[in-house]
Amino acid sequence: xxxxxxxRNLEQFVELRNQxxxxxxxxxxxxxxxxxxxxxxxDEALPWMIVCRDINDLQESNMPTAYKGYTLxxxxxxxxxxxLAHQKFLIDSYFMGSTPENNYSVPMDNIEFSFSSNxxxxxxxxxxxxxxVYCSGAATPRPSTMKRNEKGIWKVKEYSSxxxxxxxxxxxxxxxxx
Length: 178
Fold this sequence. Notes:
single chain, alpha+beta, two-stranded antiparallel sheet, 4 helices, 8 strands
């Protein structure tokens, strides 16, 4: 899946989500973009994550970081922040063109993802399915469970495999010249 215009703000992001999240792959692409923004900007990008999550997995909140009265659970945020603190480059590994050798640099002009499913993924016609995304830092694609809402927008239900550690970038490898 290719995306020509990387969103620069929440308004553009919601427009993109409304256009492409009509498929499970499009919903997952949006969520990965939201994860990248969250890795880069922290709580400022929390609304990007919120609009991509299944409503049943959100908490009602009046906190300043909430979006339209909803936020992610504290335990989810804590786990995610912890993993991203250890591997800031982790989310970039889902963008095609990033590799450990190029330090997971992402070509932002035309971003692309590679998705797959299998016979055990479930039937999208039933409103829930598992989608796998290629990861350049891992031996196998990473799964996420997607759920379609009543407006026909696919949102992430479960994504814990997306923030499991990956191979480090080439620049982090220590050279033994002793």
